[in-house]
């Protein structure tokens, strides 16, 4: 369990020329401007949402569209590489990858991966792997956040309906392009269905949530949406639903691989690589496991209400409160964006109707110049309708879905805190059991009954539990194990939350830039429309 | 004041200078300040009128006596009376006045009334009406004189009228004109309504943007570095959405004040032409009825009937000739009016679009620079 909350470096690549790794370990994150300079370089290209609703490009083109990424060797010797800890001196040369594409139809996400190959010593530079339970300062934690960049791009494309009737389902193509050595190929793709994604989530969640990781939540199930698709309704709303889901699945996977520990998980690798996956039946709501899940969730909720954790660290309490507040805020924002999207759609249809009425007016108009101008006007309004449609789409995918994702992510953050509480609870129970047994032993000592005393001693030393992870054989060692667990979870949660917040700010920034770009684009096209119409209006005699 | 007198009086003010400069609301009553410049001096005149005064003017125009072919005139349409009372919700106002109900401080409505005055003043026959002159320059208002009803000013929807409306014409020119007019009137009304829908939605969008922008302000949180970064982002987005909101407001008001007004005017003018054509058709029916009765008349009454028939014939031909002139004048002027509205509309929208393209571009620059902060 020791390595699970840290980053395990992959086997070092043989080829020194491999430019995939770049160490842009940023050290003085709180102080220097350099930090965000790095941030810009690293994260500029990582746009993860589609702008256009057009169907995915051809097979070979999925990643070649972004072929314009430039690799440049940048020496970062002067870039804040003075290190506090000597291990970090190893990274004196860095390669930075810049991705300059703007309109990729799939996402690229450069992830912070495990430490680089430049580490030639056997010493693992990552201080996380030290089994210390020293609480780290915020700065140190933030240092550990940024690591090396590996190239890993994931796209979810080509939704296809398989089967017919109520047994039909949508199959999505998951394509990966990577330079990570742990994968068999550099480029590969598999087909997956929605329940596969849910299955992945279940597996990851079972393994990692107890460690305090924030597990990205998958897209929500939708009975209504899927039924429409199954029934075969070929209208725009089911197309919209499929597109929405496709984009959500893509973002989900991108978030999963962006998490350093999750990326190392063999289940994730299997999901991306393996041709045929076992059908995940545990994800159906009314299955046995599904019901069990619901029961567990209910009991968790009850537990939450009854446990009052003795919080030694204020940080957790206030953070949790912050998270809850933010969730409320985001919900409100989401509602506001939703209404914006709806109104835009309304504007769209109104404009279309107006356009038609003007066209009719133009057709009965006798004066030829006026008639022509009116038909031109109808065309202008038609173009504007398309622009409104486009913008509504952008509003939705860039803003609304972002907010919805983060509302659910904040829920995952809360789960993370709850997991820590559970670990604490386990510790408390073990401690109180140990205490009871000690008291029993003391009593017996007093009562001077040697046979029973021996029994009591054995009791304390005996293993009564049968959990698989039990490597120790005394209650005492159990308690100390649980203590270490708790410390570790606390540390992990802290780190995870920091990482999450950084990601969040970065994500939002990116999306706003994207949104502005789309606004600007629409506006320019609008200007063109009007410029084209003006001479027509002036030509009326 | 001699109402209805058709003395050949010329308008004493410069036509192009007629303006409605102000409108004040006192409870239910709107008062308009009308300014104009005297023809032979540089003196300006300013009078205050209410809707009733406008109505009086319209009635006076209708009821002019001894004006041959009066019924053939396409009378400039007067907008309906505005009911600004609190109980009058916006939906009611919209139903009643359409575009004229929108805009701030009755601006569109005043503009429409201004057009009305200008149209009356530029009409070769109507401008000579004394009532117009006194309306424009007399400091005392014409008073609440309802006076004679004159010719009907609203096409009633009685079944009988409908039947008359579709009565076949004797003149091809008029038959065609009636058909064209029917189509244009209907279609321009529809177009006006649809544009109104667009403008209403633009208003809703502006409101929604406002809500979103305000909600974003609530996200400000200065606890730690990450929260500060996030707050900055939210505030930036808030500014952007604020800009989007202003964009909608501007675009909506341009729509309203140019194309909206133009279509509204066009639609009401088509109705006015319809009314004139209807009056002529009624005269035609009257003539045909009289002809039939004359044919059936007994010898002793025949002469009287024939004289009467001749009179009606004369009236009818006068109306028709005036109508023809009016129609031609109407056709050329409406194209011009629409042209000006369309150009104005396009120019305003183009300027707004350019302005906001520039603004968004600046925001984008600022956003990109946020990375390096």
UniProtKB/TrEMBL annotation, chain A:
InterPro entries assigned to the protein according to its UniProt record, in alphabetical order: AH/BAR_dom_sf, PX_dom, PX_dom_sf, Sorting_nexin_N, Vps5_C
One GO CC term on file: early endosome membrane
Domain (PX): residue spans on this chain: 150-279
Keyword line: Acetylation, Cell projection, Endosome, Golgi apparatus, Lipid-binding, Membrane, Phosphoprotein, Protein transport, Transport
Subcellular localization, as worded in the UniProt entry: Cell projection, Lamellipodium; Early endosome membrane; Golgi apparatus, trans-Golgi network membrane
Membrane topology qualifier: Peripheral membrane protein
A Pfam family annotated for this UniProt entry: Vps5
Biased segments, Acidic residues type: 29-41
Residues covered by region (Disordered): 1-63
Biased composition (Polar residues): 46-55
Gene Ontology MF annotations: phosphatidylinositol binding
PANTHER family assigned: SORTING NEXIN, SORTING NEXIN-1
Family label: Belongs to the sorting nexin family.
The protein, known as: Sorting nexin-1
Natural source organism: Sinocyclocheilus rhinocerous
Taxonomic lineage from the root: Eukaryota, Metazoa, Chordata, Craniata, Vertebrata
């Amino acid at each position: 369990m020791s390595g699970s909350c840290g980053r395990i470096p992959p086997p070092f690549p043989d080829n020194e020329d491999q430019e995939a790794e770049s160490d842009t370990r940023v050290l003085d994150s709180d102080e220097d401007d350099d930090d965000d300079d790095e941030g810009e370089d690293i994260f500029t290209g990582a746009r993860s949402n589609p702008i256009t609703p057009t169907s995915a490009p051809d097979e070979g083109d999925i990643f070649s569209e972004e072929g314009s990424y430039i690799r440049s060797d940048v020496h970062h010797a002067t870039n804040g590489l003075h290190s506090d800890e000597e291990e970090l001196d190893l990274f004196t040369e860095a390669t930075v990858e810049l991705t300059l594409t703007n309109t990729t139809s799939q996402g690229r996400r450069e992830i912070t991966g495990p430490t680089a190959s430049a580490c030639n010593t056997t010493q693992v530079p990552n201080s996380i792997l030290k089994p210390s339970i020293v609480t780290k300062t915020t700065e140190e934690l933030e240092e550990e956040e940024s690591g090396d960049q590996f190239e890993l791009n994931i796209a979810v494309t080509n939704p296809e309906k398989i089967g017919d009737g109520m047994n039909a389902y949508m199959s999505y193509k998951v394509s990966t392009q990577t330079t990570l050595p742990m994968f068999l190929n550099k480029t590969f793709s598999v087909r997956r269905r929605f329940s596969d994604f849910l299955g992945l989530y279940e597996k990851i969640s079972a393994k990692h949530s107890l460690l305090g990781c924030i597990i990205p939540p998958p897209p929500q199930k939708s009975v209504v949406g899927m039924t429409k698709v199954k029934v075969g309704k070929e209208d725009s709303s089911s197309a919209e639903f499929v597109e929405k889901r496709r984009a959500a699945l893509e973002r989900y996977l991108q978030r999963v691989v962006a998490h350093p520990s999750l990326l190392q998980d063999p289940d994730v690798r299997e999901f991306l690589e393996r041709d045929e996956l076992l059908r995940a039946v545990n994800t159906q709501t009314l299955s046995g496991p599904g019901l069990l899940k619901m029961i567990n969730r209910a009991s968790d909720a009850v537990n939450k209400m009854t446990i009052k954790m003795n919080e030694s660290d204020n940080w957790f309490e206030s953070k949790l409160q912050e998270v809850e507040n933010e969730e409320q805020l985001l919900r409100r924002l989401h509602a506001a964006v939703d209404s914006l999207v709806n109104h835009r759609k309304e504007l769209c249809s109104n404009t279309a109707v107006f356009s038609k009425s003007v066209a009719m007016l133009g057709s009965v108009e006798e004066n030829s110049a006026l008639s022509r101008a009116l038909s031109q006007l109808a065309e202008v309004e038609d173009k504007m309708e398309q622009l409104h449609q486009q913008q509504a789409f952008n509003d939705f995918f860039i803003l609304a879905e972002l907010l919805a994702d983060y509302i659910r992510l904040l829920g995952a953050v809360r789960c993370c805190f709850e997991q820590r509480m559970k670990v604490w609870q386990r510790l408390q129970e073990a401690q109180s059991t140990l205490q009871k047994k000690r008291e029993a032993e003391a009593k017996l000592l007093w009562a001077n009954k040697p046979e029973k005393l021996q029994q009591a001693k054995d009791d304390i030393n005996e293993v009564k539990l049968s959990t698989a992870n039990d490597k120790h054989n005394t209650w005492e060692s159990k308690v100390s194990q649980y203590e270490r667990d708790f410390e570790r979870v606390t540390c992990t949660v802290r780190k995870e939350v920091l990482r999450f917040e950084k990601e969040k700010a970065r994500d939002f920034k990116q999306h706003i830039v994207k949104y502005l770009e789309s606004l600007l684009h629409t506006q320019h096209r609008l200007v063109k429309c009007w410029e084209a119409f003006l001479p027509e209006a002036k030509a009326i005699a | 004041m001699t109402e209805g007198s058709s003395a050949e009086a010329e308008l004493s003010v410069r036509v192009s200078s007629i303006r409605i400069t102000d409108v004040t609301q006192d409870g239910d009553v709107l008062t308009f300040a009308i300014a104009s410049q005297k023809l032979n001096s540089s003196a300006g005149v300013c009078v205050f009128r209410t809707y009733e005064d406008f109505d009086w003017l319209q009635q006076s125009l209708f009821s002019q006596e001894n004006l041959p072919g009066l019924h053939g005139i396409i009378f400039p349409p007067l907008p309906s009376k505005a009911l600004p009372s609190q109980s009058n919700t916006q939906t009611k106002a919209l139903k009643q006045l359409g575009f004229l109900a929108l805009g701030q401080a009755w601006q569109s409505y005043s503009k429409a009334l201004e057009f009305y005055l200008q149209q009356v003043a530029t009409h070769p026959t109507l401008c000579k009406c004394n009532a117009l002159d006194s309306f424009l320059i007399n400091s005392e208002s014409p008073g609440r004189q309802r006076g004679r009803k004159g010719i009907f000013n609203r096409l009633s929807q009685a079944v009988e009228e409908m039947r008359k409306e579709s009565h076949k014409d004797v003149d091809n020119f008029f038959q065609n004109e009636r058909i064209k007019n029917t189509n244009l009137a209907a279609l321009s009304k529809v177009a006006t309504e649809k544009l109104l829908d667009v403008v209403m939605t633009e208003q809703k969008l502006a409101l929604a943007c406002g809500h979103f922008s305000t909600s974003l302000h609530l996200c400000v949180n200065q606890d730690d570095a990450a929260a500060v970064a996030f707050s900055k982002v939210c505030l930036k987005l808030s500014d952007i959405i604020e800009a989007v909101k202003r964009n909608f407001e501007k675009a909506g008001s341009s729509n309203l004040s140019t194309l909206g007004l133009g279509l509204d005017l066009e639609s009401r003018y088509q109705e006015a032409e319809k009314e004139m054509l209807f009056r002529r058709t009624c005269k035609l029916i009257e003539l045909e009825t009289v002809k039939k009765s004359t044919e059936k008349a007994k010898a002793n009454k025949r002469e009287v009937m024939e004289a009467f028939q001749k009179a009606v014939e004369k009236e009818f031909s006068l109306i028709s000739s005036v109508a023809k002139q009016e129609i031609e004048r109407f056709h050329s002027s409406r194209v011009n009016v629409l042209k000006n509205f369309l150009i104005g509309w396009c120019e305003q929208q183009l300027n707004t679009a350019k302005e906001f393209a520039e603004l968004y571009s600046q925001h984008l620059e600022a956003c990109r620079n946020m990375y390096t902060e």
